[in-house]
What we know:
16-stranded antiparallel beta barrel; mainly beta; 3 helices; 4% helix
Amino acid sequence: xxxxxxxxxxxxxxxxxxxxxxxxxxxxxxxxxxxxxxxxxxxxxxxxxxxxxxxxxxxxxxxxxxxxxxxxxxxxxxxxxxxxxxxxxxxxxxxxxxxxxxxxxxxxxxxxxxxxxxxxxxxxxxxxxxxxxxxxxxxxxxxxxxxxxxxxxxxxxxxxxxxxxxxxxxxxxxxxxxxxxxxxxxxxxxxxxxxxxxxxxxxxxxxxxxxxxxxxxxxxxxxxxxxxxxxxxxxxxxxxxxxxxxxxxxxxxxxxxxxxxxxxxxxxxxxxxxxxxxxxxxxxxxxxxxxxxxxxxxxxxxxxxxxxxxxxxxxxxxxxxxxxxxxxxxxxxxxxxxxxxxxxxxxxxxxxxxxxxxxxxxxxxxxxxxxxxxxxxxxxxxxxxxxxxxxxxxxxxxxx
Length: 400
């Protein structure tokens, strides 16, 4: 871990991703491994009860689930908590390689909740893929790998802020399982294309495949631009049926008509600008839409992070975000919802293996189509607020 714990250039590969193939040598030189522990302490001014969610929050959670920090990705508990512990290992030779990333703890459960990976025994496997490099500029990865979009990643120490944006958690995918092809045309241009089973599901509920592409353009050393697209059917194309309940008629098992034609699309843009070695601007703008049975679910948003490194060990990062959910589909509110948040993070690296990330964050949400809305941020089972302020201290110890 660098002394100031800066993030990698987005979209960030998980630690342990095979690097440039190494030349022939001792076999053990081709292995690499690292481990880390990510823990945090959080204070929520809404004093939610209970301190942790009644059930662990997931991307489809609704504000009707009280407890903990509402609408957060992994820092869902107030008080002291361990996010997760991680272990990464990789093997890299001239032409082949393999990567495994394991995560254990509440974060691993949250990360995989409501997905097929939990039932398939993959809830602790963040990444697992093999790599083949048939020629110098061409790389093929097959297996489960982190999604390439956006400006944030799952591991806290690789981000400029400790807490993740609403955009990262509710709009973007987390991982894919399939085939990824990367071709580096030149130092200034790289292209990735992939085919996968679907968003966040190793075993997809739909026979249709998801396809994606991302271009990386580096016109100058101080600027990198990423433009990506992913699309495909995500809704189940088969139902197991349900028995009659009360006045509700039984639903027979069988195919779901037109499920493959209800597509989800995401367009993602990232600009990474570094005017000086100490100053960095990171902008991420996304647009997502999905054709549901009753309506079109559209979401858009963006966030900007400005980071300044005061010293090699100490830096500050300010993030502002706006998120618009036209029908409340991704946030689970069931109505038009706008969320704005501001985050200030101070990061201090203790030598090279310990990062302290102190952060203050304020979230505000409005539901303009609901008169006298009490807000979406829970205080307890009977009370909610339009805003939520949290103070968080993240502590990450790493062997790397």
